[in-house]
Amino acid sequence: MAAEWADNTSYQELSSLFRNTAEFLKTDPDSKLIKFNAWLWVYYQTRDQRVRERAQQEILKLGGKVEMSEDGEKRFVLPDASK
């Protein structure tokens, strides 16, 4: 559905990404990597502190770790993305 919505907007380039993700989820509907990336996207796309806290909480529940970059930016890594 997201791909169809994106087709008629300025986000058309995301249509194939959404379609590919949907196809992948058909084979692995409980993908930790997909969940991690989705929450990561939420975290970085909002400035709302409550939303960011929730996204960070979900990332950590999935096994994500917080790291600080050399320039002081928070980043998240998923040590074992194969599960």
Structure, described:
It is a single chain. By secondary structure, this protein is mainly alpha-helical. It folds into two domains: 1-29, no CATH class; 32-77. 55% of the residues lie in helices and 10% in strands. It has a two-stranded antiparallel ribbon with strand order 1-2. Strand 1 and strand 2 (74-77) form a beta hairpin. Helix 3 (32-45) runs antiparallel to helix 4 (49-61). The two termini are 26 Å apart.
- Please provide the count of β strands: 2
| Total domain count | 2
What is the terminal separation in angstroms?
Answer: 26 Å
Instruction: Report the structural category.
Output: mainly alpha
Radius of gyration, whole Å = 14 Å
Helicity, as a percent range? 55-70%
Structure, briefly:
The chain is built from 4 helices and 2 strands; from the N terminus they run ααααββ. The protein is mainly alpha-helical.
Question: Any chance you could write out the topology, listing elements then pairs?
Answer:
Elements lengths: L1 H6 L7 H13 L4 H14 L3 H13 L3 E4 L5 E4 L6
Antiparallel strand pairs: 1-2
Helix pairs in contact: 3-4
